[in-house]
Amino acid sequence: MRIHLGEEEQPEIGLIALIDCIFFLLMFFMVATSFKQQTENEKRKELPVVLPSASASLVATRASAAPLIIGVDKGGKFYVDGEQIGTLELHERLRKEAAADVNRSVRVDGDQATAYQHIVHVLDLCQLAGLTHIAMHTRK
User: Fold this and answer.
1) Which among 2, 47, 60, 118 counts the fewest CB atoms within 10 Å?
2) Domain containing 100 — which CATH number?
């Protein structure tokens, strides 16, 4: 004898629970992800330079104009303001900067894999132009 209890319900996928789970995951990833705003310095092109690290550093005491930043990549190419320039253009730029302000500071961002000769070449060009306030940029 079979007992008939009524019509059997068909199995259903709970769409409401599935939508809640997907919404929860979406909110989790939105909150977990940080949206970083670019500052003015980050908007410039990044140089292809890996800076060497230093064990000690000094804090600059004088407040002056921003230094002229000369980048030297591992291939020995020169960059000023994120643009690649040649040796003659670099020499002309340094002469113009020295003519405008002989006390203008220069910062050399040299890649740790570059040949030392390329850094010395930049230092020689600065000396020829008359710029004597030169710093080397390193990682902390």
Assistant:
1) 2
2) 3.30.420.270
